[in-house]
Structures are given as structure tokens and as C-alpha cells.
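Field log, afternoon session.

UNIT: design team B
ACTIVITY: writing a sequence onto a fixed backbone
BACKBONE:
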């Protein structure tokens, strides 16, 4: 396995972990800032139309984590394609 393949695997793993972590944390804190809003200095996270009031640091964290998905999600889709195109492991013959 060459260095590019290792990088592709690591990038994919980070993207998956970031997405799963985002989902778990959003469920625990009551939603995410991208679906939330700020009203009169109060911060709300949104989750399927339900709003949960949170502190400013929690709101900012949720915003940053949500925006990070705009980077890691596309990379997580591109990295396996690069891995495959550059000759990464193939499917076993029994699965072809």
C-alpha cells in the first residue's frame, strides 16, 4: 500500500468519524446550529422543527462542527474514489 492509499483511508475514516460524532452530539444537545436561530440574544439549536435553547459557546461549537461537515463530507466521498482509481485493493474474486 502506498502513501496515497494510506492518506485516502485516513481521510475517509476521519470523515466518517466526524459525521457520526456530529450526529451523536446533535442528538444529545438537541439539534444543530444550522437548523437553529438566534432570537433577541438567545441561541437555539434546531432539530426537525423543534428548537432547544443553548448557551453561546454550545451554539458556536455546533455551528463550527456543522460547517466542518461541508469539508469532510466531500473529502470522504472523493478519497475512496481516488483510492480505487489509483489501484487500491480490489474486490475479492468471489465477490465480483
Amino acid at each position: 500500500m502506498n502513501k496515497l492509499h494510506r492518506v485516502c483511508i485516513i481521510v475517509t475514516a476521519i470523515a466518517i468519524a466526524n459525521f457520526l460524532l456530529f450526529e451523536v452530539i446533535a442528538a444529545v444537545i438537541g439539534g444543530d446550529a444550522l437548523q437553529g436561530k438566534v432570537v433577541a440574544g438567545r441561541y437555539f439549536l434546531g432539530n426537525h422543527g423543534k428548537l432547544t435553547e443553548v448557551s453561546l459557546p454550545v451554539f458556536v461549537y455546533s455551528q463550527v462542527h456543522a460547517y466542518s461537515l461541508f469539508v469532510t463530507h466531500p473529502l470522504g466521498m472523493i478519497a475512496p474514489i481516488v483510492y480505487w482509481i489509483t489501484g487500491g485493493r480490489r474486490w475479492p474474486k468471489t465477490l465480483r
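LOG NOTE: The chain has one domain: 3-88.
NEXT ACTIVITY: expression trials, pending approval
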